[in-house]
């Protein structure tokens, strides 16, 4: 798939903008704080109906404007799609081919994107919530029902934690409603766990293949799902529900003591091993970055495997964070395979690394020039 054109209205520092893109490599070139990442972000928002930079959606609306609009024409294997995202103080409105979507889960997945930014290089070393977010965003793109069940899980989790606090200060310890919430949480959590494990098994295969190529066969990469639950290799959704429900009941006293739900997908993590050594704790920075690069590139192949076409790749100033060897592997991987958008302050990183001519957009103070091959 690829984005043929995009138009912005009142989006961050862009009052009005319309651009046509190359189906191969597009470069947003300019100094920092000129609007490169804003433009890249608009593509991400058009795809996932949320920003990767901020949870405050009002920040995306230009000052003194009531709403921001992003429109894109997407070429897919089965034809063209017109996508529209409108952001206002009242919330978000999404349209596909002019038809308003009643749920975000009906909208997400029409345009698949993979974002690779400098902070993704800390995927391995960073906090567990970053790895959970990584799983949730990527699975949600290929399985909209996952986002639906994840939303239910998060809502019930919030209710359960609130009720735990209420019980702690009540003389009437009515645990019946708590068990109702635990059952609802386990039901949604079983779905989340099942699809996380299924996704991770496929991701590991792709990531290891790519990791071996980058390291010239010297390193093997494995990824483990870390949970407080005793997870079996081939557990189905029902078994995961029953396991989680049982453990939620077993930890009631602990949860009442700490006023929070101590077990479930919201507490889980990923572990990365290179040649059976935990790379998070004992790997070099080079190994950690190679692992992160392998995982991000594996996402691309996995999405292609799942939906039958490659996603759009967004590279936000990431080349400057990679050494020459990893830059070469990245650029060789994407060439002639998928549409790519790259932000950079200099073209030096691309010299002698490309066999294709990129479409270059020069950006300065929200003004874009170079809308041609």
From TrEMBL:
Family: Belongs to the RecF family.
CDD domains xref list: ABC_RecF
Protein function: The RecF protein is involved in DNA metabolism; it is required for DNA replication and normal SOS inducibility. RecF binds preferentially to single-stranded, linear DNA. It also seems to bind ATP.
GO MF annotations, alphabetized: ATP binding; single-stranded DNA binding
SUPFAM superfamilies with a match to the protein in the record: P-loop containing nucleoside triphosphate hydrolases
Locations listed in the record: Cytoplasm
Residues annotated as domain RecF/RecN/SMC N-terminal: 3-352
DNA damage listed as a keyword: yes
InterPro entries: DNA-binding_RecF (IPR001238), DNA-binding_RecF_CS (IPR018078), P-loop_NTPase (IPR027417), RecF/RecN/SMC_N (IPR003395), RecF_2 (IPR042174)
Protein name, entry field: DNA replication and repair protein RecF
Main location: cytoplasm
UniProt superkingdom: Bacteria
GO CC list: cytoplasm
Amino-acid positions noted as binding ATP in the UniProt annotation, renumbered to this chain: 30-37
Gene3D superfamilies given in the database record: P-loop containing nucleotide triphosphate hydrolases, RecF/RecN/SMC, N-terminal domain
GO BP terms in the entry: DNA replication; DNA synthesis involved in DNA repair; double-strand break repair; SOS response
Native organism taxonomy: Bacteria, Bacillati, Bacillota, Bacilli, Lactobacillales
Keyword terms of this UniProt record: ATP-binding, Cytoplasm, DNA damage, DNA repair, DNA replication, DNA-binding, Nucleotide-binding, SOS response
């Amino acid at each position: 798939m690829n984005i043929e054109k995009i138009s912005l209205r009142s989006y961050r520092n862009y009052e009005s903008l319309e651009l046509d893109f190359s189906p191969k490599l597009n470069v947003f070139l300019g100094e920092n704080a000129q609007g490169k990442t804003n433009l890249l972000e608009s593509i991400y928002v058009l795809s996932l109906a949320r920003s990767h930079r901020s949870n405050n959606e009002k920040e995306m609306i230009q000052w003194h404007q009531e709403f921001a609009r992003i429109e894109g024409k997407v070429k897919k294997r089965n034809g063209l799609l017109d996508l529209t995202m409108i952001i206002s103080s009242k919330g978000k409105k999404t349209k596909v081919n002019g038809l308003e979507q009643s749920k975000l889960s009906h909208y997400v997945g029409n345009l698949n994107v993979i974002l690779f930014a400098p902070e993704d290089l800390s995927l391995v070393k960073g906090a567990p919530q970053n790895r959970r977010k990584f799983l949730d965003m990527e699975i949600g793109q290929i399985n909209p029902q996952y986002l639906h069940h994840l939303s239910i899980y998060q809502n019930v989790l919030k209710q359960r934690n609130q009720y735990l606090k209420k019980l702690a200060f009540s003389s009437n310890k009515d645990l019946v409603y708590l068990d109702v919430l635990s059952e609802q949480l386990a039901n949604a959590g079983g779905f989340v766990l099942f699809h996380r494990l299924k996704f991770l098994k496929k991701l590991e295969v792709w990531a290891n293949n790519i990791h071996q190529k980058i390291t010239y066969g010297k390193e093997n990469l494995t990824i483990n799902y870390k949970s407080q639950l005793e997870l079996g290799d081939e557990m189905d959704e029902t078994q995961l529900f029953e396991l989680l429900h049982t453990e939620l009941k077993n930890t009631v006293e602990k949860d009442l003591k700490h006023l929070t739900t101590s077990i479930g997908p919201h507490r889980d993590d990923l572990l990365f091993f290179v040649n059976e050594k935990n790379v998070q704790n004992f790997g070099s920075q080079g190994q950690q970055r190679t692992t992160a690069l392998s995982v991000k590139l594996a996402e691309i192949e996995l999405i292609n495997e799942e939906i039958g076409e490659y996603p759009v790749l967004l590279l936000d100033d990431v080349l400057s964070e990679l050494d020459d060897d990893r830059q070469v592997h990245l650029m060789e991987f994407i060439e002639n395979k998928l549409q790519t958008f790259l932000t950079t302050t200099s073209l030096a990183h691309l010299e002698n690394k490309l066999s294709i001519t990129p479409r270059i957009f020069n950006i300065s103070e929200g003004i874009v020039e170079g809308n041609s091959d």
